[in-house]
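Table S5 (text form). Sequence records supplied for joint modeling of the two-component complex.
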Amino acid sequence: MIEIGVIDDDQMLLQGMAAWIGGTGDIRLAATATSVDEYLGTTPVPKIVILDLNLGNYTDPARNVAQLVNSGLQVIVASVIPDRAYIAATTEAGAAAYVTKNNNLDTLADVIRAIYQGKTPTTPEHAFWLGRDDRPRRPKLSPREREILVAVGNGTPHKAIARQLGITMSTVQTHLERVRYKYASVGRPIDHAAHYSERVREDNLGRERLPEPSNGNPHPHQ
Amino acid sequence: MSAAVALPGAVREQTARSVVRAAAFLRTGQLAGWLWVPVVYGLARFSPVVLIGYLLAIAWTAVLFTAGLRRNWLTIRWVRADVAVAVASAVIVSRTFPVGEAASPRNWVLGPICGAGVTCAFFASRWITAWSVGAIAIAWMVGTWPDIRSAGAMSVLSGCATILVFSLVAALAARVLFRAATQADRSASAALEAQRREAMAEARDEERRQQFKVLHDNVLHTLESIARGELGIGSQQVRETCMRDADYLRGLITGGADSIPTDLGVALAGMGRDRSALGLRINQQFDALPKQFPPHVTAALTGAAREALNNVVKHAGTDEAWLSAYGDGAGGVIVTVVDRGRGFDLEAKSAGLGLMRSVRHRVLEVGGNVRIDSAPGEGTSIEMAWTP
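The corresponding structure-token record, covering 610 residues in total, follows.
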């Protein structure tokens, strides 16, 4: 049995989640929380956690991911509406996967199982938005890596990509892993608040909705 | 906005045309004014240089203003040549007259060289005009200098003054005219811009009304039905409807924080929602679609994507498809429809043929490109690209 946790500000979603996840048979929702701090306070902390991209409490998504990753957790970022810049930033912060919330259970379960086996799955939606990454400081991808990222992002199965490019499926996988590695080791860790504001400057993100927190204290609403 | 707005730059162009005409009339008059002189005094009284010079001046004037009227402007090369002709005629023709006659009405050069100064003032910059008019005045002085000691001395000086005053007045008039024309053009294009903005705002409002209408017809209807208790939220049908509506809404608002719904995005999302009703689960991903996009291309790409998705429903044997669309950053878009179903053999030219025809036809018709890839057991991917 794989135990996971969910961090989401939507109570309705949290309530329905346990039964939904339980439908898989081999995955169990063991903890829920509405904030990262609350989640890290639970015992025991499930090692795989689904994190809402926008928690609605004015915390920064990349920082939330970094905090969880630094606590030794595997983070699956989930969002209702994809936001290109945040998806790239949370990937750099070490998120293991990105999924949209409209995914069916099978897809999510596959992602969870892959992470449980120590893999770094790249879902089509993840590939699509990384392929659309237009930040000035994005990692440098090779043409082949980009090609594969775009193809996966369009929903093309790995088998078809391998055939089109005349490579093996495991090579496709290797390219994807290299892309993820480049993102994760872009040399810009977010370990504490000072790093975070550096990254914001580098990425030149227009953060109107999420003001930059100082000393790790989230700004209260207004 | 009642009156039709002139095209930007139209007033200036019109003014330039009038100025070329005015200069042509002036020069023609200045040359024609001398015609009575040989009649009164007799042709034999004039040296061949004077007469041939006169005919050459007429020929040059004809060439100059034919070129000018053709493009409604005299370029600086023509102006310079005209000034050179004026300087040459002022010196050569005037010098052939006996003392006392060069600065008299018997010499034809004064009128046309004044005209050259005026033309220069109309079409050349301030500095070129100053130098050219100075050169013409000096040429006049050089040509008529022998008369300075005769009774015609005053005519030498008054001729020089005439050249300077005519040109100065012309320069000032040209400045006033062209400034007014530019001003008029600027306000015309400002009005045009305002009109365009108004039209755009209207189109946006219309778009928004359309979206709200769709929201009302679909999403709100679903929500209200649930709220009124008409639909049990546990039922499979309601879950599917909600899923469809959620996908539609997501299609409208993907991308970055800056993205607003675009015509193409709305069209594709709406089309996707309709296909979902056929039991197909469509993963929609739209990003950076161009805000200004030709409506007929929107219709063609949406139609082609609809055909492609219909084909997934009919032939692919799967209930899931991916519909992606993104801008290429240069006004073009790439739309892809991908499934992971049965696929077909591209070489066999059987099952895929109809698909290729219906999709390809629509996209090629608006100048786009289609790439279809498929293999048995590996699904089908169709990429439609359009660039302006």
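Note: Chain B touches chain A at residues 243, 246-247, 250, 253-258, 281, 283, 285, 287-288, 321-322, 324, 326, 336, 338-340, 343, 373, 375, 377-379, 381, 383 (CB under 8 Å).
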